[in-house]
Amino acid sequence: MARTHQLNVLAALDRAKTRRYHLAAAAIAGTGFLAGAYNLYSATLVYRLLGRVYFADSARPGEPGALPPAAAAALNGAAYCGTFAGQLAFGRLGDAIGRRRAYGLALALVAACSAASGLSFGRTAKAVVATLCFFRFWLGVGAGGGYPLSAAIVAEYAGKRRRGTFLAAVYAAQGVAILLGNAVALAVSAVVTEADYVWRVILVAGAVPAAVSFYLRTKLPETARYTALVAGDPKSAAADMSRVLCASIQEQELDVSVSGVDDKWGLFSVQFVKRHGLHLLATSSAWFLLDLTYYSQNILQKDLLAKLGWLSASPAAAAATMDDAVEEVSRLARAQALIALCGAIPGYCFAVALIDVVGRRRLQVAGFLAMTLCMLALAALYDHWASDVAGFMALYNVAFFFANAGPNTTAFVAPAELFPARLRCTCHGIAAAAGRAGAVLGAFGFFPKRGADGGEDAAGIGTRNELFVLAGTNFLGMLMTLFVPETRGASLEVLSKEVVYEAVDVAGYN
């Protein structure tokens, strides 16, 4: 049974047309999310330079250095583990101390560790990698915190008719981060000739958007839903929203004795399992399966770049075709930017435009279905694509288009809408952490092992078999989506069964 108090401030937020404060909240959350994504996605460029600078063999001057598998695994693992921990920790913290305060801590951590990552020094290559692992872990903690906090802030500020659009726009900042990272790499490599400085500048640049978002967040108050429903102070929530809405919203003190029921049940309660247990399982499973596919198929990008001749297939070939490490990174940045523009970015734009038109569940089902078919086509005709590079690239980009137009966006949106305000960040953090677990399995689990010559090791299952497995995981993701209710156009409080209130006229608002 839910509380039945009339909360004018919630009605005003749900009915609000798009205003400046909506755009401000989305811009602040998006900028912070961009900062975390920039630092995570720039790793490919940075690691290639680290190998050239610190692991070159002086006895073999004709061959450039390459980051050892153990060092690459340590750096990736530190970032993944930090992100996983941050999603859980800051999810809980956002519900405990408020979205605004917790987000400030997460952004400060990203800014500080971005700058510190670029200043990772040491007397030996191992010392540099160890120091970078330390800062990458804490950077991941802050970036992981951005998932539940940015989602909750935007969902709780937005009106019910355009909430999906704003949430999708925040997640689309991930695509902007990919382009920005490659643009920074291109700009730095054009100006700086010393490889050891290039990767440091790329990392330090990630502190800028985090610092900007940290400052801008001070311009907005705590979300009204947190203040009214979690902190229990609807009068302060009404006063805050009266300022941002330029309206007069009156609210009485919340008398929790009226309903006569205890609705303060927690995450580990029978009531939560009955009301939202299936929602949490479905959203977490869909995100896990999506990231398992998304991060596994990154291996195809290496094949694609090699087939197109945009990137050498082996370090020895790289030495023969590229002047130096800086030029190699410049070519890689151009290639990654082009691939993102062909598939990922249009997918994000498609999701932003249509998520409040066709709904979250339809986009997610369609995305998983298209990805399943693409993986099957790539696997069934894998030998054929060796001579049909254009077809290989087309299917690859179609898969990424539908991933970003569907589950890669909707998996972020749904957990921000289904759960009560007092558990919203916590549950979103759990779903996001499940996705990160899928990413770890995809990146380190069953993908083909690579030998010293760049070829596949017999110990791996092979790229073709991997594609069949990914087709299966996408199909399972589509099935789990059927258990996620559609949230389009509904109030957050109606979806979570937390508060039922009547629509009211707010003086000065209509």
UniProtKB/TrEMBL annotation:
One of its GO terms (biological process) is phosphate ion transport. One of its GO terms (molecular function) is symporter activity. Pfam families: Sugar_tr. One of its GO terms (cellular component) is membrane. It is a multi-pass membrane protein. The chain crosses the membrane at residues 21-41, 70-90, 102-121, 127-154, 166-191, 197-216, 337-358, 365-382, 394-414, 426-447, 467-484. It is found in: Membrane. PANTHER family: SOLUTE CARRIER FAMILY 22 MEMBER. This is H(+)/Pi cotransporter. It comes from Urochloa decumbens. The lineage of its organism: Eukaryota, Viridiplantae, Streptophyta, Embryophyta, Tracheophyta.
